[in-house]
Amino acid sequence: xxxxxxxxxxxxxxxxxxxxxxxxxxxxxxxxxLLDPDGLPYDRPPLSKAYLAGGSATALAEDSWYQANAVEVxxxxxVQLHPDSxxxxxxxxxEIQADAVLLATGGTARTLPVPGAEFLHxxxxxxxxxxxxxxxxxxxxxxxxxxxxxxxxxxxTAAAAGTAVVLIDPVPVPLVPAMGPExxxxxxxxxxxxxxxxxxxxxxxxxxxxxxxxxLLEDGSAVAADTVLAAxxxxxxxxxxxxxxxxxxxxxxxxxAGRTSHPRAYAAGDAVRLRSGGHLERRAEHWDAAVRxxxxxAAGILGQEPPEAAVPWFWTDRxxxxxxxxxxxxxxxxxxxxxxxxxxxxxxRVSEDGTLxxxxxxxxxxxxxxxxxxxxxxxxxxxxxxxxPKVDLRRLLRPRP
Length: 401
Ligand SMILES: Cc1cc2nc3c(=O)[nH]c(=O)nc-3n(C[C@H](O)[C@H](O)[C@H](O)COP(=O)(O)OP(=O)(O)OC[C@H]3O[C@@H](n4cnc5c(N)ncnc54)[C@H](O)[C@@H]3O)c2cc1C
Description:
Number of strands: 25
Helix content: 10-25%
CATH topology of the largest domain: FAD/NAD(P)-binding domain
Bound molecules: flavin-adenine dinucleotide
Organism: Arthrobacter koreensis
Domain FAD/NAD(P)-binding: 7-294
InterPro entries: FAD-oxidoreductase/Apoptosis, FAD/NAD-bd_sf, FAD/NAD-binding_dom, FAD/NAD-linked_Rdtase_dimer_sf, Reductase_C
CATH architecture of the largest domain: 3-Layer(bba) Sandwich
Number of helices: 11
Domain Reductase C-terminal: 313-397
Strand order of the largest sheet: 3-2-1-7-18
Largest sheet: 5 strands, parallel
Pfam families: Pyr_redox_2 (PF07992), Reductase_C (PF14759)
């Protein structure tokens, strides 16, 4: 396809917003329309942290940015996409026409497959956070089903507000695949230390109980709460893509430049699944991956080379600590610990070939950045140096004399 003269972006989360910004950064002079039911783009990570605690900041950019960059924000929901003509049909019947269409539709909170699921809160949107934040505070009881990233963050925010919190998960130590067993165990132990009750249990039913709810567990016991949040993951929003005939396989299938199976349609963010080297990767579901894939799709739209793939990175904040992980903590090999669980603690995953596959860290900013670069370099690392907190990891990045 020749250079497009207009782009329509469906979904104004981090992926859609970064695609618009990147199109302009790369000098695209054409029309850009950014479509979302919520209008102006906003960010989701604060929704379980500062925003849930009563803060207000969620915008991805100042309002003036859109005018300055000639990005038209359209409030509306796309209900149909005709990729052959580049037509996007909105819920009210209006149509948007563009030479290139980017699907950045993210996902929705997964619902818990138990009776009574209709009583549960979810947390994916600002409206979800608004509904939840009035239900936190002293004298209130919150049960959270799912102790992964979002469930754990909400537990910390709610406990800090004085809420009595019970966190329920069938897995004794959640987040092991993401953080590795050592860092995951430390993170999980913070709940009890901060007054949050953790239960290893499988919820099977949710029923009204007086003015509140009871979560019935497989072992026959029950947890009473005023509010119950299901934080059990997300489902990619692929309905538009599927109806438009694009290739979808638990995510809209894209290449490294966000190209879908139709030459006029691109996709990015939580809704996509990357085909790389002949196989389909897992969906990323993290902020940095969404931003980078939006930028890559912008390059794809312009027929330019996307930036090189980055080593995966995500963070999570809870109980005043900032935890991060980069690369893969599940690669076969061995673990190397640095320091003791607490601020500065790190765990490295070293592959069988001696290169660094992944790292998880607690309040370990500079060292995590160095670890990410070490993973990208792909050269063998010295396990003793990794284990020694006195060794500045940035030193390992330098070529040996
Ligand atoms: C509560 C919470 C906390 C998080 N915290 C972290 C964190 O600490 N660290 C981290 O790395 N990641 C975190 N994440 C994950 C991160 O926010 C997501 O990976 C990121 O938002 C994905 O960006 P996206 O643009 O692909 O999708 P989204 O942010 O979901 O945006 C998609 C947008 O598309 C719109 N849309 C969908 N369908 C249509 C349609 N038909 N027409 C028009 N618009 C449509 C939606 O309204 C939405 O605004 C968190 C997520 C949540 C929910």
